[in-house]
Design a protein that fits this description.
mainly alpha; single chain; 111 residues
Length: 111
């Protein structure tokens, strides 16, 4: 049951634009349009915030792996043999984790 009101002030032209847009969508009026958009925005923010820490940790891991790859490249460019290529395996694993995390967040990113 809707028993609370929220008031905002806008000019007549903006109100007319919002009402016209609302009628062109599946919403009955501007109130339902705005209510739906606000709820979607809040849910999107909550969803993205849950994955923020995961993405930060992945970024840190990828930076570390990038440093390892740079060391391998530096060694190869100096003409020295490289015996440990584990950074490539780490990179592949981190890339898969990052792709999974991004797939969870991508539907909600703004265009």
């Amino acid at each position: 049951m809707k028993d609370e009101r929220l008031f905002i002030k806008i000019n007549k032209a903006d109100k007319a634009d919002i009402n016209r847009y609302a009628r062109s969508t599946s919403h009955r009026n501007a109130s339902t349009l705005i209510r739906t958009y606000l709820k979607d925005y809040i849910l999107t923010e909550q969803y993205q915030n849950r994955h923020y820490e995961l993405l930060r940790a992945l970024r840190k891991d990828i930076n570390a792996i990038g440093n390892n790859l740079n060391q391998i490249a530096r060694t190869l460019n100096a003409g020295q043999p490289v015996e440990d290529f584990s950074a490539l395996d780490e990179w592949a694993t981190a890339r898969k984790c990052l792709e999974k995390a991004l797939n969870r967040v991508r539907p909600f990113r703004s265009s």
